[in-house]
Design a protein that fits this description.
Blueprint lengths: L2 E7 L5 H16 L5 E7 L10 H9 L14 H6 L2 E4 L2 H10 L7 E3 H4 L14 H26 L23
Parallel strand pairs: 1-2, 1-3, 3-4
């Protein structure tokens, strides 16, 4: 059975939507598209909204299609059905954990699960170059996440359910 990874940001029109299509493309490159399912949602999304034009353009430059993406509002069911929830900021993570405390153990920031610090800054409304930088950061972090998931599925003793060395107190602050 495939693992399900849920990427979460604010509006599901920039970061999490780009993360979803980037991860899907990277999974296909690695031959893991049947092992991991990726989806995205936003904590304050307007359901049905299109991805931002800059996000669509940057994904197109990378050979990925974001034109058909429509925003989805994060629900309890989304979090329940996911094996791993990766939020773009510590603020998103905290909000999800506060909203669904019984599911908090599967919620991390993308950077945290990748073994890095910090948030993925929101490019909303910025020039396309800012989206390119954001996409590059997402690609790097997602690559590290996929390495961890692949290693966990390979049965080498490491768990793909949480980051080694995670800092439990690192879930406060940040912006939405």
């Amino acid at each position: 059975m495939a693992k399900k990874v849920l990427f979460v940001c604010t509006g599901n029109t920039c970061r999490s939507s780009m993360a979803e299509v980037l991860a899907r493309g990277m999974l296909a490159e690695r031959g893991l598209q049947d092992e991991v399912e990726v989806v995205s949602a936003g904590i304050a999304a307007l359901p049905g909204s299109e991805a931002s034009p800059q996000a669509v353009a940057v994904m197109e430059e990378m050979g990925l299609d974001l034109k058909s993406h429509r925003a989805s509002l994060l629900t309890r069911r989304d979090v329940e059905e996911a094996d791993l929830v990766l939020a773009m900021t510590a603020g998103h993570k905290k909000l999800i954990q506060d909203r669904f405390p019984d599911l908090a153990g599967k919620v991390f920031t993308l950077a945290e699960f990748a073994g890095r610090d910090g948030d993925v800054p929101d490019p909303f409304g910025a020039p396309v170059e800012v989206y390119r930088r954001c996409a590059g950061e997402l690609r790097e972090l997602i690559s590290l996440v996929l390495d961890r998931l692949a290693a966990g599925e390979a049965g080498d003793g490491r768990s793909a359910s949480g980051p080694e060395g995670a800092r439990p107190g690192n879930d406060v602050g940040g912006e939405n």
